[in-house]
Amino acid sequence: MKGLVALLLGGLGLRVLLKRRQAAQPGALEPTPADELRAKLAESRAEQPVEPEPAPEVEVSGTAGRRQAVHDQARAALDELA
To answer: Which residue in 37, 60, 70, 71 could disulfide with 65, CB within 3.0 to 4.6 Å?
Structure first.
């Protein structure tokens, strides 16, 4: 008898849980405000092609300049070996 009551209560609890889960999910037919914003964002991105900006020239001085010179020498040495 206890097993039957436990089975009935477990089934009832599972049914309630499934109904709550279905009620919490938005319907597939109803667009949400987030979906509308995503659509607007996609449209605006499609209309305006984005061109990358060129990297600014940076003057190298001091220790950074010496490091750059060493790297350039190493690249030249590797090119000579190849």
So the answer is: 60
